[in-house]
Amino acid sequence: MSDPVKGDYNSFEAFCKRPDPTDYPKGKNGKFQCPCCHHFTLGEVASYDICPVCFWEDDGTTGEHGFSPNGVSLEVAQINYQKFGASEERILKHVRPPRTEEIS
After folding, report:
1. In which element (H, E) is residue 103 found?
2. Contact call for residues 20 and 2 (beta carbons, < 8 A)
3. Percent of the chain with pLDDT over 90
């Protein structure tokens, strides 16, 4: 587990008051791009949607910090996705391959 105060946030209170991101790319399918696997699977930005392709829970943060519900940083999750197809190896049973409309 990472240090609970890390990255851009110097406290849990600062983390909770962070603005939600508004610049996620949107795909032709009308979905937003997952910051972990980069497929267009999210219905909303920063609404704690879980990507069905990599199982990343989009809490709206992209930096390293200890407050994410994911248990790993985005950077580690991206590496994990490249290695074995999920944000964490233990959740491989919950993911699926991207659909054609989710790729671009």
Report:
1. helix 100-103
2. no
3. 54
Amino acid letter, 37: C
Tokens of 93: 């049973």
Tell me: the pLDDT tens digits for 60-97?
Answer: 876 655 556 778 888 889 999 999 999 999 999 999 99
Report CA dihedral (15, 17, 23, 24) to the nearest 10 degrees: 50
- DSSP assignment of 16-56: HTPPPP----B-TTSPEEPTTT--EEESSSSS--B-TTT--
* 59 CA to centre of own chain: 7
Q: pLDDT: is 47 or 69 the higher one?
A: 47
* 95/68 Cα distance (integer angstroms): 19
Residues sharing a CB contact under 8 Å with residue 27, sequence separation 6 or more, in sequence order: 33, 40, 101, 102, 104
Question: Could you give the 3-state DSSP secondary structure of residue 57?
Answer: strand
